[in-house]
Amino acid sequence: MTETQFTPRVFSGIQPSGGLTLGNYLGAMKRFVDMQGADFETIYCMVDLHAITTWQDPAALMHNTRELCAGFIAAGIDPEQSILFNQSQVPEHAQLAWIFNCVARMGWMQRMTQWKDKAGKNQQNASLGLFAYPSLMAADILIYHATHVPVGEDQKQHLELTRDIAIKFNNDFGVDFFPITEPVIEGAATRVMSLRDGSKKMSKSDPSDMSRINMTDDADTIAKKIRKAKTDPDALPSELKGLDDRPEARNLVNIYAALSDKSAAQVLGEVGGKQFGEFKPMLAELAVEKLSPISSEMARLMGDQSEIDRILARGAERAREITAPILRQTYEIVGMVGAGSD
Ligand code: ATP
Ligand code: MG
User: Which residues line ligand 1 (CB under 6 A)?
Assistant: First the structure.
């Protein structure tokens, strides 16, 4: 069988499950903006079907989806250049996910660390959707035949599973139909940690607001959260090795590096020897400088929600031009009567 050449295409998504955190910005959104350009077709999604795998208040979900859309645009995603939409409005995602539910194995899902983390001790009471989450995520990506997926480090395992699903589908049906997707996990802050606990990642759904910096936090709040961030009593080292076994210190250095587009080693070259009492205000100032233009633009865009809805509707329409034929071909491969051919 000859190898199919797939068009370079980027897909990624963010859940409208709350605000947007600094982790989402540095690990995902900023990278989405970097990849927008001549080399790739870029497709970005507010994954509302993923958000409801844990309970969402309906009014809050609508607000969060629109606010996330405003966040994408404020951060630099051009809704003309990229395709920007919310997942539920492109039904082929959920339709392909059902096919993948029949390809993926229970054992694969049971190994997923996000499932274990989010279901916690009471797995019997978690939603079936939370368990099947990675299968829907594989469908989100593969319904576009996407070749590159920029994400934070926490999504690496889900991307490996996406590859496993594509490989098994191709093998089961003797086709070379779905691409083997490349994860793109790059930059100085692929895993931003909680400000309260250096062993936990920063998450928008963390019950503690002090654990994260939200894109919508004002300057005083950002400064307060950084001032109160957990650290150790030692001064900053001059070399990376000095951050071993110092997860909280490493986290703040990585955040500084990512915000200033430098490497952590470069940052340590500049701030090595400083105490946190001096470094934390520098970090707060940098964070405010980078985030406040985005948050004020978000607020401005939220002033015209009908424009946001119009952008999302147009994005969904453009997305369906890609997804409808790929779903039809998938149904044909699987043997569904009526799928027809192009
Ligand atoms: P939730 O707590 O609801 O799962 P989240 O903050 O984990 O929210 P997601 O919508 O699940 O956000 O993830 C969106 C993108 O942000 C993904 O690409 C994910 O890898 C990335 N991301 C999430 N948290 C971090 C983090 N702490 N550091 C770097 N990237 C992150
Ligand atoms: Mg998450």
Answer: 14-15, 17, 21, 23-24, 27-28, 151-152, 154-155, 190-192, 201-205
| 260 contacts 253 by C-beta, under 8 angstroms | no
Strands, E, within 187-312: which ranges? none
* Alpha-carbon radius of gyration of the chain: 21
CA distance 162 to 326: 17
Tokens of 17: 């499950």
Give the predicted TM-score (pTM) of the model.
0.96
- Ligand 1 centroid from CA 15, angstroms: 8
pLDDT at position 4, please? 77
Ligand nearest to the CA of 19: 1
Give the helix/strand (H/E) hosting 46: strand 41-46
Report whether pLDDT(319) > 70: yes
